[in-house]
Amino acid sequence: MKVYAISDLHLSINNPKPMDIFGENWDNYVDVIVKNWKRKIKDDDVVIIAGDISWAMNLQEVESDIDYIANLPGKKIIIKGNHDYWWHSLTALRGILPSGFYAIQNDAIRIGNVVFCGSRGWTAPEDNKFKTPEDEKLYKREVIRMELSLNAAKTIMQEGDSLVVITHYPPYNSRFQSNPMTDLFKRYNVNVVVYGHLHNAAHKQKMKYSKNKIKYFLTSCDHLGHNPVRIL
Predict the structure, then answer these.
(1) What span, in angstroms and rounded, lies between the C-alpha atoms of 52 and 161?
(2) Torsion-angle region of residue 157: left (phi > 0), alpha (psi -120 to 50) or beta?
(3) Strand runs (DSSP E) across the chain, as ranges?
(4) Phi and psi, residue 103, nearest 5°
(5) Domains (range + CATH), the chain
(6) What H or E segment, with its residue span, contains residue 61?
(7) Nearest to 163, CA basis, from 108, 211, 121
């Protein structure tokens, strides 16, 4: 079993939304994703989609996008992004997911010898300072949710398992400073962290970064060339 990751697909299968307004690299990007996906991913593999999956506004609208992904090879694991307005009730969402399609929200699942957990996350502070009191409130809430997820992972991990955290927002700030979220990853012996959200071509994040023996992968599809990256 191989594990791949990609994020920010921004699908809208039944009501196409032009993404090339965000740059030429979004032109026919769904076709490029599918071509790359089918070229490298097998049915026994796992693909993480780290948020911003669909432009849909409710579960009825998102089903076509989920079905589109479900028809591609591999098992899929999704987490909520800031644009996934259709993601309200986790129970209701899990009720429409096809076989081999998993949603994580502050909890964990184990597939093979890999445990996956995560939370949406929020913007990390710069020099321990937040832009607004609301940002600080939301960030602290997400740290609590992430620890709930890591505790859930701890209860199902077996000897020799790898631990993968999925989050939508970058866990680091622009200077890669440690913060309460990354401190959690270190304390729980996380192996890999997958995140997305960033699209600005001038962003200061690296596509792959290692700190405290943890590998961090930025997986926004436009930065990957719409090509899922292997993380394990």
Answers:
(1) 28
(2) beta
(3) 3-6, 46-49, 75-79, 101-104, 108-111, 114-118, 162-166, 192-195, 208-211, 214-218, 229-230
(4) -115, 135
(5) 3-230 (3.60.21.10)
(6) helix 59-70
(7) 108
For residue 12, which of 26, 25, 2 has the smallest C-alpha distance?
26
Residue 217 contacts residue 4 (beta carbons within 8 Å): no
Q: Residue 178 phi/psi, 5° resolution?
A: -65, 155
- Per the DSSP assignment, residues forming a β-bridge with 46 are 3, 75
Q: CA–CA separation, 114 vs 189, rounded Å?
A: 13
Q: What is the DSSP string of 5-43?
A: EEB---B-SSS----GGG-GGGTTHHHHHHHHHHHH--T
Model confidence pLDDT, tens digit, residues 94-153: 999 999 999 999 999 999 999 999 999 999 999 989 999 999 999 999 999 999 999 999
Q: pTM for the whole thing? A: 0.94
- Give the total residue count for the chain: 232
